[in-house]
Design a protein that fits this description.
Elements (H helix, E strand, L loop, with lengths): L7 H15 L3 E4 L1 H10 L3 H9 L2 E7 L5 E8 L5 E9 L4 E9 L1
């Protein structure tokens, strides 16, 4: 069963992600994310643009105990994209798990 965050928690998390990207946190891409990016023609600079201006629409614990944020934002061309990400704060990294246009 997933546990979710809401409201002010989501905005605080979005702010954290935007701050990490602004401070040049490393953004890494899971193999699944790279495949989805190729399929949807989303390049790394688009993914970074989404993260720079993202809103977090969900933050959930998955069955593995891992927490993931679903970020929504726009590419450099203004297209709406969602990304599932993990924050690896201790390593100053954001791992993109999947990407899709909406």
């Amino acid at each position: 069963m997933a546990v979710a965050a809401a409201g002010a928690q989501l905005e605080a998390l979005a702010s954290k992600i935007r701050e990490m990207v602004a401070n040049r946190a490393e953004v890494i891409y899971a193999a699944h994310a790279r495949g989805e990016m190729a399929k949807d023609q989303v390049v790394a600079t688009d993914a970074q643009a989404v993260l720079k201006g993202c809103a977090v629409v969900r933050y959930e614990a998955h069955g593995t105990g891992e927490w993931r944020a679903t970020c929504r934002g726009r590419t450099r061309q203004g297209e709406l994209v969602e990304m599932s990400v993990r924050i690896l704060e201790e390593d100053n990294k954001i791992q993109v798990v999947t990407v899709y246009r909406i």
